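idk why but the lab printer keeps eating my pages so im just putting this in chat instead. protein + pyridoxal-5'-phosphate:
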Amino acid sequence: MQEFVKNRARQEIFKLKPYTPGKPIEEVKRELGLEDIIKLASNENPLGPAPRAIEAISNMLSEMHLYPDANCFNLKKALSGFYDIPITDILIGNGSDELLKLIAETFLSSGDQIIVGKPTFSEYEFAALIMGAECIEVPLKEFTHDLPAMLAAITPKTKIIVICNPNNPTGTIVNRMQIKEFMDKLPPDILVVFDEAYYEYVESPEYSTGLEYLAQGRNVIVLRTFSKIYGLAALRIGYGLTSTEIAQAVERVMEPFNVNSPAQIGAVAALQDQEHVKRSRELNKQGKQYLYNEFKRMGLTYVPTEANFIFMDTGVDGREVFNRLLKLGVIVRTGDIFGLPTFIRVTVGTAEENQRFTTSLEKVLKDLK
Ligand SMILES: *Cc1c(COP(=O)(O)O)cnc(C)c1O
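predcted complex ->
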């Protein structure tokens, strides 16, 4: 490493591990010379963007010389109506990823701690480490957040606990009773971030959202996104629902034009396109069932999911499976980055994509055995 950076940069940056994104289709095309590729690696919506969002964005392209609305007023108003909560309690971010970072900047100092599950979404650790805080990882129990163990991990330094519900990469949820017991015992001065990026896909009647605790006046932030079921991942737009007090604090560290206009306009239109949400949920439900059946037929174990991806055990080296699937033009995620080297995570695609994935997987596993 060059001396300049080593001596002058904040030491916190050397603890950061680079994010491992799903491999982009273009990259696989370049590297393997393949044309026909499907990406089931980043939990994107296989039906594409909400059609109403495409239309709304197409109609605003000639306005792109203007700065966006710094306050995201129209989107906040739409979300306020959608959830029946005050406009002052809504945060809009450049993806919920940005909100995670802003929350860390608002609440964390060097030496503080946050508590998260293991494995879970890596951005929580990233946001904490940037601020010089420590990320305490509590192992999942049966692939699910172990809330009693997370409570037991609290120290005087704990500022934030993040519950990813459904959890990425396992697709599991913590249920209503588990959350209630957790919230009943939680010291009120600890902020709970419920990351509900996959909320719209949940089918279980046992599910409860962090919004219930927000309504009770607890210190919680509920994060949701337009990247997944609404199909707007490229626009980078997510939102947080919280108290007015917390929202005002987080807005202090926010850049004035953090969310671009196509994103704001697209999100308003997407929110009105509940038909698309319904279609997407239905497709996911069918795809999930198809994949379960195929895994059973092949004698493979998987974690039942409440999201649009399945964490499954290949029984062999997951990275090898990943590489061989790649050569067949199918991009998935390896489990080793989540600490489970025989696992892969696959996004539920269209019927055609799911079939191509299972056919390819069966071939790869046959070759490997
Ligand atoms: C995809 C995802 C997000 C969404 O991130 P955006 O920045 O809104 O695209 C947030 N949390 C989890 C757990 C996710 O998987």
